[in-house]
Write a structure and sequence with these properties.
70% of the residues lie in helices and 0% in strands. It contains 4 helices and no strands. Helix 1 crosses helix 2. It is elongated, with a radius of gyration of 29 Å.
């Protein structure tokens, strides 16, 4: 539950933001609502971009294994695309062997 102090601070910040946005809106000739939406959207996008997880680069072995698994997996599946009994485990082993791994 926000306290009175929180509400007063929020109102002060809102007044400050309005004081900054109105001159920009008059200079650009855009309605204040559009400028406000742009600023809020830009801020939200920047925060989301900063929080985006970094994607790791796949190793050379991982790329070889992926290709080998796609190639080998066909042998261990039924005609309808389901795995045969023990097929997934066998496909993993065969892909590792084909890719040059120890397994």
């Amino acid at each position: 539950m926000p306290t009175d102090e929180d509400i007063r601070l929020a109102l002060r910040l809102r007044a400050l933001a309005d004081a900054l946005l109105v001159p920009v809106a008059t200079t650009t000739g855009l309605p204040p609502e559009v400028v406000q939406g742009f600023v809020e959207g830009t801020t939200t996008g920047a925060v989301a971009a900063a929080k985006a997880p970094k994607k790791r680069k796949a190793s050379a072995y991982n790329r070889k294994y992926k290709a080998a698994f796609k190639r080998v997996s066909k042998k261990f599946k039924k005609k309808n695309g389901e795995w045969k009994k023990g097929g997934l485990k066998a496909a993993v082993r065969a892909a590792h062997k084909d890719a040059g791994g120890k397994k």
